[in-house]
Each structure stands twice: as structure tokens, then as C-alpha cells.
Amino acid sequence: MIVAQVHFQRTMVLVPPADAERVRREGAAEGAWSFNLEPAPDRTTRLVMLSLVARQRITDRVFWEPAHFVMERKMMLTIKRLAERGGADA
């Protein structure tokens, strides 16, 4: 995945390398993975991750999606743990 769009301290959108040129020309991709920081009323920040895929085969749903869910969950839990630890290891 490569970075297709960044809004400083707010959003980062990743796309497959094959879609990068299309995103530059048309603003549309076959798939995308975005990370968004949203301020919360209690002065915290919420990290929202979104995956979009234009087309999916049945094998993607049966095999890829469960594996992807496990990987993303571990990644998000690690980010949470590191963020909550604060500047101790920074």
C-alpha cells in the first residue's frame, strides 16, 4: 500500500500501488485503507480505521477478511497500548 492522501494530523489514506495513478487522475481507487483521527468531547482522540474494497470474490470473504480482521485488531490494540502509555518510551 502507498500513501494516496494525507490531511496533516487528521487523515491518511493508503491505496494499492496499481491504483495510485488513478487516484491522482480521478480521485477514485479500487480499494483504500484510511486512518482518521477524530477529536472526542472528553478531550481525547478516537482513531477510526476504514477499509474499502470495490469488488470482492467469495474467496476474499471466506479467507482474506477473517485474516485481515485479526491483523487489523492486533494492530489497533498495539496502537492503543502505545498511545495510552504516553511519552514514557517516546
Question: How would you describe the overall organization of this protein?
Answer:
It is built from 2 helices and 4 strands. The mean pLDDT is 81. The protein has 2 domains: 1-54, no CATH class; 56-90. It is 39% helix and 32% strand. The protein is of the alpha+beta class and 90 residues long.
Class based on secondary structure composition and strand pairing:
alpha+beta
Oligomer: single chain
The share of residues in helices is 25-40%
Individual helix count: 2
Distance between the termini: 26 Å
Please describe the biggest sheet, giving its number of strands, its sense, and whether it closes into a barrel.
4 strands, antiparallel
Q: What would the principal axes of the Cα set say about the shape?
A: globular
Q: Mind telling me the C-alpha Rg?
A: 15 Å
